Amino acid sequence: MTIQDILSRQWSVNQLTIMGPIGKMTADNARFRLTPDTASAAFIALHTGEAMHRFANILFNHDSGLQPQAMGGATDDGRLLDLAMVNQVIQSGFELVAAHIKTTTDEQWTELIATPFGELPRMGVLQFLMHHNSYHCGQISQALKKGSLY
C-alpha cells in the first residue's frame, strides 16, 4: 500500500465525517449559532470549504480561483447563505484535494513545503487540514443541535 492509498482513504473518511452534520443543515437551522458571538453553522461550513481550496493552493500549488467569503477576518453578518453554494464549495474542495492526493508521489508527501506556519512536510499539512475540517465539523454539529437564532 502506498502513501497515496493511505491518505486517499483517510481523506475519504474525513469527508464522510464532515458531510454528516453538513447534510443536516436546512434553511431553518443553517443560521443557528451556539452564542451570539459565534458564527452560524452555514458560515462555518462555508469557511471549511473555502479552507480546503486555500490548502489545495498551499499543498499542491493549485489556485482554484475561489473568492473567499468566510475567511481572512470575514465575520458572519447573520444572513442566510445559499446552502447549494455552500455545499458546492465543500464538495469541490473535497474533490480537488482528493484528485491531488492521487497524483502526489510518496516522495512528494515527505517534502517540506512553505506554509503560513513555516516549512512543514506536505503530509503534515494535509493532516492539519483534516484536523481543521473535523474541528469545524464539531462546531457545526453543536450549533445545529444546541444553537438557536440570535
Automatic annotation (TrEMBL):
<protein>
    <submittedName>
        <fullName>DinB family protein</fullName>
    </submittedName>
</protein>
<dbReference type="Pfam" id="PF12867">
    <property type="entry name" value="DinB_2"/>
</dbReference>
<dbReference type="InterPro" id="IPR034660">
    <property type="entry name" value="DinB/YfiT-like"/>
</dbReference>
<dbReference type="InterPro" id="IPR024775">
    <property type="entry name" value="DinB-like"/>
</dbReference>
<feature type="domain" description="DinB-like">
    <location>
        <begin position="24"/>
        <end position="140"/>
    </location>
</feature>
